[in-house]
Amino acid sequence: MSSSSTPGPGLRYPSNKKTIYDRNLNRTKNAELSRAAFAYLFIEMISYAQRGAKDVGDLEQRLNNQGYPLGVRLLDLLLTRSANPLSSIRPTRILPLLQFIAQQLYRHLFGRPADALERSGSDAAQYMIFDNEPMVNTYISLPRELSSLNCAAFVAGIIEGVCDGAGFPTEGVSAHSVGEQEAEAAGAEGKKGAAMWPGKTVFLIKFKKEVLEREEILARGTSG
Amino acid sequence: MSYYFTIFSPTDTPLYTHDFGTSRSGGDGIPHFTSSERALAPFILHSALDIVEEVQWGASTSSGSAPMYLKHIDKYANNFVSCWITGANVRFLLLTRPRDEALGLSGTTGGSRGSLAGGRSGLTSAGLYNPSAPATEEAVKNFFVDVYEIWVKTVMNPFFHAGNGDIVKSPVFRARVGAAAKKFL
């Protein structure tokens, strides 16, 4: 088309003349991506993160960083999709936020809710989201020298992005395989769980002190 | 009626600013700030951010979720500030400067040229501008809802990081905000 259709210098339209502002935020239900395509991409992402990574911790941090911006964006996207935009609401307490992660976010990413959501008994600032079978780990088998790696660190990064974006800064979200020792410590039931779900992963979310303080002040207002 | 609209990042950096006038009831869409008012507007909006932080977490009795639309939150001199806060803590602040007549400053109280937001329907019986009148709140809310939709589309861009203070430069975005303003304010 002629240059008169361009409103300003430097702005280039895509060939179909549709800017991001012309697209719909809502996707139809069956617009899911193929798992093979995801697995292929994810393996490329891991090998990209592996390049120059010093150790397992560094590699997990790199995967975490790849997920983080996704989380910040998904927060806003899912909030617009879940509710009627005219009554837009956002989570302002820890529990609704975690439920948002375990339900809406998980459903959006993996098509099912997370398997469990718990608060740590020893540390009040720590919450745990359990995933019996992380989809991202489906096609990953770890070599012996990387046995402590859990590639669900990518999902942990997404969760961290959601928490941070919503105004609940964390000390970090990390993904851990629920190992033998933890299973034993949890007793017979835990052992059975580990046997049934060998890939069981827990996402540890540790909120910063100020988040808990704020939560306490807000809760105190209720009674007083 | 003149409006001054700014989007603030979670770290209080202004990412987008737009000033416009009312297009309702014969308004021309051009802001009529005096030069000193215009210079003061950014300061008023920045000071309103403190109020946003006070009210954004909702009442203590809330069930753990709060609406994004915080309604009218602050007033300074003749300027009224309304706020919308997104899930990712990006604040939309709209400063409204009603006409002098609507503030009762000049003798005439003719509401004939008022806008929908604070025009005839938004005026109290005395003809004064009332920021919490239902018609005013609804008009501002509709404006925010439209801006919110295009804002979400903006942040979906993987190369745009609101947290890093990336400024919205897209002329399409500006045109859309202008259209929303023309439609509702």
TrEMBL record, chain A:
One Pfam assignment: TRAPP
GO biological process per UniProt: endoplasmic reticulum to Golgi vesicle-mediated transport
Superkingdom is: Eukaryota
Q: Which UniProt keywords apply?
A: Endoplasmic reticulum, ER-Golgi transport, Golgi apparatus, Transport
In terms of CDD domains, this protein maps to: TRAPPC5_Trs31 (cd14943)
Task: Please state which protein family the record places this protein in.
Answer: Belongs to the TRAPP small subunits family. BET3 subfamily.
* Function field: Plays a key role in the late stages of endoplasmic reticulum to Golgi traffic.
Tell me what this protein is called: Trafficking protein particle complex subunit
Q: Which organism is it from?
A: Massarina eburnea CBS 473.64
UniProtKB/TrEMBL annotation, chain B:
The UniProt entry, under InterPro entries, shows:
Longin-like_dom_sf, Sedlin
Against Pfam families, the record matches this protein to: Sedlin_N
Question: Which BP terms in the Gene Ontology apply to this protein?
Answer: endoplasmic reticulum to Golgi vesicle-mediated transport
- Write down the superkingdom of origin: Eukaryota
GO CC: one term?
cytoplasm
Return the Gene3D superfamilies for the record: 3.30.450.70
Q: Which SUPFAM superfamilies does this chain map to? A: SNARE-like
Recorded protein name is: Sedlin
- From what organism does this protein derive? Massarina eburnea CBS 473.64
